[in-house]
Amino acid sequence: MKETTQNTTEATNNLPELTGSEKQIAWATSIRAAAIQGCNLIRGTMRPREEWAADQIEKIESMYAACNTLFDSYENQTSSKWWIDNREYDDAAWFVRIRKELAKKLK
Question: Is the pTM of this model over 0.70?
Fold first, then answer.
């Protein structure tokens, strides 16, 4: 339990305060922390490697920039209701959702 609390705190540091009732905020805080941890995992996998061709690196860097914009919009979402309404997303579902939204942004 201590590790979950620590991860939640680390994931939500420096984020805007959530709005809503006390119960909504408590629930949304844990939902947001899990989602942001998932986003950070995805960010960590999007690092170019030296052995990649220049065009591959350019594409990854473009995706990384779009990914950061998308994640920033999530991180800056202050409505507890929004987080609660989107709570059904586990890490895998967040990944699929993010990929779909990135594909739209990169068209």
Answer: no
